[in-house]
Design goal:
With 415 residues, the protein is of the alpha/beta class. The protein contains 13 helices and 13 strands. The protein has 2 domains: 147 residues, Aspartate Aminotransferase, domain 1 (Alpha-Beta Complex); 237 residues, 3-Layer(aba) Sandwich (Aspartate Aminotransferase, domain 2), CATH 3.40.640.10. It binds pyridoxal-5'-phosphate.
């Protein structure tokens, strides 16, 4: 019997695929049949096969057939219906608290501004916005912009780039001057999975509001917004929710805050009576007030097919496969990449890890370019990080092994 670790991993990958209860879902996606290895489902998910036909039907039947009548008949309610369904299936959010709207960047801006205004109105000393030093650029840029605009102060939380903001770091950053804290549920760089319930309590104990960025967790990691007592959350739908390039983001506002928070982009779609076209803006009740302009109806259709799949598979089973995939990837990495000098730049404990793992080596930028030429698609993040995104509905264990074997060859070639 061979003792080559690659042969043993091949046997293991076959066994894991054979016993994977979600294996059949992979075939529901475009590209499952190709030999391309996709490690970027955490940046842009693959399209479900049925989406092409459903989008075509929408263009002819709904858009072409109903024309402007479609707004009254169903489109106006889509951001709320779809938001509620997403909230129910993947966010632990009761109905009436989730809406599909603008981009993640715009929704983060609106909710950060609303939260800062609300807290500092109640206590003028609350002028601090807390954010991680290593958070996703858009999150950091927004906080700096809002601070400059509103005369607020940014409090940066320093973190280990192989982890993320944890309870100890957060406790040192919040206090009586904190208005709002922006946190990532899963770090885009390391894959660190925050203990959202505990961190939310720390923010509340300081008298501040928390805004969770769920971009890298929604659809891969169970989220319990209501149970955690979260105030606000925003996340992408084109990553693990397969909504397509630029599909609109979602926003969650806990019911208890909806009457008091006022967002800054006052548009007609967020007004109390949209078609009254009155002389002044009065915000609507409920989630409508967090909208600004006309909802991107076409762009929010694709994610419905992924929600069907999530309903079918269940988020608990999706998370279970995600953990098995990342565990397998780390075992393979320890077996064939560690001897080449590749380090794991993600948490080892699955309870602290989301759906991707980051592997670090000085040659990873060149390795990424080489892999893309071979139809092996991970992505690169400084410093020296190769991100291996393992979307649980679309990634197989054999694909994971083949991709990591290609990484080993590329590191040998570049190293
Ligand atoms: C992907 C991502 C975004 C993207 O924001 P867009 O407005 O959709 O470009 C924001 N924050 C995080 C943490 C992300 O991972």
């Amino acid at each position: 019997m061979s003792t080559d670790p690659s042969d043993l991993f091949a046997v293991e990958a076959r066994a894991l695929d054979a016993s994977d209860p979600l294996a059949a879902h992979r075939d529901a996606f475009v590209g499952a049949e190709s030999s391309l290895i996709y490690f970027d489902g955490n940046s842009l998910g693959r399209p479900p096969r049925v989406t092409a036909q459903r989008l075509a039907d929408f263009v002819t039947g709904q858009w072409g057939g109903r024309l402007i009548r479609g707004w009254d008949e169903s489109w106006m309610q889509m951001p709320f219906h779809l938001g509620d369904r997403l909230g129910h299936l993947a966010l632990g959010a009761a109905a009436g608290q989730t809406v599909i709207g603008d981009s993640t960047t715009v929704l983060l801006y609106k909710l950060l501004r609303a939260a800062l205004a609300e807290r500092s109105a109640g206590d003028p000393g609350r002028v601090e916005i807390v954010v991680g030093r290593d958070d996703f650029p858009t999150d950091r840029y927004l906080v700096e912009g809002i601070a400059a605009e509103r005369g607020a102060r940014v409090v940066w939380v320093d973190v280990d780039t192989t982890r993320g903001v944890d309870a100890d770091a957060l406790r040192g950053a919040v206090g009586p001057r904190t208005a709002v804290v922006l946190l990532s549920h899963v770090s885009y760089r390391s894959g660190y999975l925050a203990d959202a319930g505990t961190l939310t309590r720390i923010v509340h104990d300081a008298g501040a509001l928390v805004l969770w960025d769920l971009c890298h967790s929604a659809g891969a990691v169970p989220v319990e917004l209501d149970a955690w007592g979260v105030d606000l959350a925003v996340g992408c739908t084109y990553k693990y929710l397969n909504g397509g390039p630029g599909s609109p983001a979602f926003a969650y506002v806990a019911a208890r805050h909806q009457a008091t928070l006022v967002q800054p982009i006052q548009g007609w779609m967020g007004a109390a009576d949209v078609f009254a076209m009155g002389p002044e803006y009065r915000p609507a009740a409920g989630m409508r007030r967090f909208l600004s302009g006309t909802p991107p109806v076409l762009a929010m259709r694709a994610m419905e097919d992924t929600l069907d799949l999530i309903e079918d598979a269940g988020i608990t089973a999706i998370r279970a496969k995600s953990v098995t995939l990342t565990e397998f990837a780390l075992r393979v990495s320890d077996g064939i990449l560690a001897p080449l000098g590749v380090r794991v730049a993600s948490p080892r404990d699955p309870a602290e890890r989301g759906g991707h793992v980051t592997l670090s080596h000085p040659a990873m930028r060149a390795v990424t370019a080489r892999l893309w030429e071979q139809d092996v698609i991970p992505d690169y993040r400084d410093p020296h990080g190769l991100r291996i995104g393992l979307a649980p509905l679309t990634t197989s264990f054999a694909e994971t092994l083949a991709g990591l074997t290609a990484v080993a060859e590329a590191v040998r070639a570049e190293g």
